[in-house]
Amino acid sequence: MFQTSLSSEALRGALSRLPSGRSVFDHTGARQPVHTVYGGAHLFKADTARKLGAVALRAVEEHAPDFAAFARAIGLPGAEGLPEGRADALALAAAIEAGGGAAESASGAARLAHAVHARVLDKLRREPVEDLRIDFEDGYGVRPGHEEDAHAAAAAREVALGMAARSLPPFLGIRIKPLGDGCAERSLRTLDVFLSALVAASGGALPPAFAVTLPKVVAPEQVSALADALDALEGALQLPAGSIRIELMVETPASILGPRGEVALPGLVDAARGRCVAAHFGAYDYTASCEITAAHQHLAHPACDFARHVMQVALAGSGLWLSDGASNLLPVGPHRARPGGAPLTPQQSEENRRAVVGAWRLKYGQVRRALESGYYQGWDLHPAELPVRYAATYAFFLEGVDAAAARLRSFVERAAQATVAGTVFDDAATGQGLLGFFLRAIGAGAMTEGEAAERTGLTPDELRGRSFQAIVARRSA
Is-annotated flag, keyword Manganese (predicted)? Predict the structure, then answer.
């Protein structure tokens, strides 16, 4: 026996002061979309997601018609060693798809580029948009009240048609105008018109995971006002209480730091009274508010890094999804052929290609940078950005999958052996992080659950359990 000085009562008193908050690894396991597409409410139709996918596929076909050309266009690592001729690229793709010795002899860069390209094309055909926001703010502008009323009701009816046709993305919502700067009454009226028309057209249903995005937040009272309005609307429309989610736009200095220098984000989230599910960073409003000139407003600016990191630290362990902002260069060529007019000249086509490829490379770098920083979602504003969004996401996970799988296998084995021997395995956080890599990869569509199970040696049930400690406990029992 070892001598101690604390009585049981004193020990219990000290322990009673400890918070009972959850671990940073405690989460619901819900799928997080890899992006949010914003589009003006006046343009939204029930089949908008399908049309965006078709435009994205045409962009790939026009500017990068094979896997090697696509890899070079976006700047995938090792792309410079891939065949430049289309016939050679197609022959290499056929060899990789056939498997066997020919596939194994292909370089790692070629296999990665082929896998990314194939997954991107499949995604654009099957589910081109994961999350779509019907925008009544910057993407819509200021219009007469009767016109915005009409667009709100029309967009709602299109959502109802999409629900019936199963043509909507898995995640959907609207972005209203700010609850400030004289827009508050107009903003809440649009929300009311939209939801009232949607419930009437759909027979009382909302799309799954429906969210309202609140932009330019500067005070908790704005979030509380939106929560109050949603409480009232759910009651009036006989919707389940709390069924409408709130997303916060973090795009003002006041949404980062309060008037006395305190971190503002927890108070903003609390003001949503359990409705807040995500915080989205708005780089351009934020940098403009910091008096950064337009030429230097971009996602890689140090001011943006500061804001994003504050978001991460302030909301760590909260379960909220974090999203990066949008690129400031869209993949759009300067030339467009007129219907019935002359086709583009070879020089014009080449100028278009260079413009698109330049924007693709910028986007690829921005998405990769965000992923490396722990931001697994971002904004897309143009359909031609979708191929790069998915390519960067898939490549991020596929590049690291072999090393992560080997480490996870080793960690599970070592932890189970330590438990059986009655010793302590003191790096469970790293094991959970490695497991999280594969859970993120599955959620992002970079690999299937079956592929992750095969690579890691875990069972599908162990992956679905999402707990490294539970896996170890089960294997050491």
Answer: no
Give this prediction's pTM: 0.91
Spatial separation of the C-alpha atoms in residues 398 and 115, rounded to whole Å: 9
Nearest to 32 by CA among 319, 243, 282: 319
**Cα 37 to Cα 130: distance, rounded to the nearest angstrom:** 8
Segments of the chain with pLDDT less than 70 = 1, 19-29, 101-105, 416-426, 477
> Shortest CA distance to 368 belongs to which of 386, 387, 393?
393
CA distances from 174 to 138, 159, 212, 213, 254 (A): 12, 11, 5, 6, 23
Give the span between the Cα atoms of 364 and 371, in whole angstroms: 11
CB 131 within 8 A of CB 172: yes
Query: Is 256 within 8 Å of 307 (Cβ atoms)?
Result: yes
Q: How many CA atoms lie within 13 A of 269 on its CB side?
A: 19
How far is 101 from 112, CA to CA, in rounded Å?
17
Which among 411, 406, 380 is positioned nearest to 393, based on CA atoms? Answer: 380
SS3 of residue 37 by DSSP: strand
Query: For 420-477, what is each residue's pLDDT tens digit?
Result: 555 545 577 788 888 999 999 999 999 999 999 999 999 999 999 988 888 888 887 6
Q: Tokens standing for 205?
A: 């249903």
State pLDDT tens for residues 297-306: 999 999 999 9
> Is 76:391 a contact under the CB 8 Å cutoff?
yes
Task: State the pLDDT at residue 26.
Answer: 37
List b or e across 208-228, with b for residues whose CB sees 16 or more CB atoms inside 10 angstroms.
ebbbbbbbbbbbbebbbbbbe
Closest CA to 398 of 371, 380, 427: 371
Residue 232's pLDDT is 97
From the list 186, 107, 123, the residue with the least C-alpha distance to 393 is 123
Strand-pairing partners, residue 278, are 247, 321
Tell me which long-range contacts 104-107 makes (C-beta under 8 A, separation of at least 24): 107/78, 107/81
* Cα angle value 422/423/428 (rounded, 5°): 120
Task: Quote the CA–CA distance of 471 and 29 in Å, as a whole number.
Answer: 16
d(CA 96, CA 355): 31
